[in-house]
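Structure representation.

___
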Amino acid sequence: MRKVNRKSVFGLSAAAAVLLLAGSTTAASAYKTITLDVDGKTETLEGFQFGTVGELLKERGIEVGEKDLVQPAATSALQEGTTIQVQHALAITIQDGANKSLALLTQAHTVADVLQAQKIQLHEADQVNLDPQSSLKSGDQIVITRRTEKVEEREEAIPFQTERQPDANLYTGTEKVLTSGVEGKATIKTTVFFENGKEVDRKQDRQVAQQPVNQVVAYGTKTRPIVVASRSGANFTASREINMSASAYSMPGERTATGTITGHGTVAVDPSVIPLGTKLYIEGYGYGVACDVGGAIKGNRIDLHFDTRQQALQFGRRTVKVYILK
């Protein structure tokens, strides 16, 4: 803090009056050396002076407010060698959070001292715009940001996965649960940060409390048998059903490709489609056996033997369902 040292002569008119009235001894006692320190700036005053500290300050135009510090007291009489110290209060504003504002005059000279004097407490997360130990000057503003946080917790289900595996013992289209799935659980902890009551950030922490158990499901790969009702009303089981173009012929007593004799139930097939020896049920014809072949019987075609030519002509050619019997 810069000091200004200078000597001033004061109170000459008063001293002259004293000399005239009281003589030289009284005049000598009225002559004083006074040190004046105003906000750290000092000066030395020499001269004739009567009265009090307050009167001297008023004479020199130094205003003193209610919160200003004056030592010795303004009512103290001036003495030889008196040091007068005047410390004007600092005009400070405090913005505490979003809504609380305070303007004050204070003799405290650091942020920490001002807050202590105003009984303003800071929590660990709070922030202040100025260093707590920094020196203040008039016009400074102390801004306190109140930081708070709130913790929210909730549980969240963790879905289980489904594992599928083939099972040759189950028919196609069917499934069997081998292991039931169980959902897991997770705890979601969310910390919400506020500054002066306004949310500014949030952080999330996810902890798995219980791992899920996967569900295991077996699915069938076994071909499902086809149950068919024959013309006689009896049911039979087929392993496969094929739509085929059927023609009719009648050549009783002839030998087939497999060595059998033709008759009702003799069916000529394409062996690449229906293997020879396969037992069949043909819609609109009845039971038969794939035991013969023919040059024109290729792909999804069959030739059905009838006992008479009339029966063969009556059947003609048509599309039929051919069931492969088990």
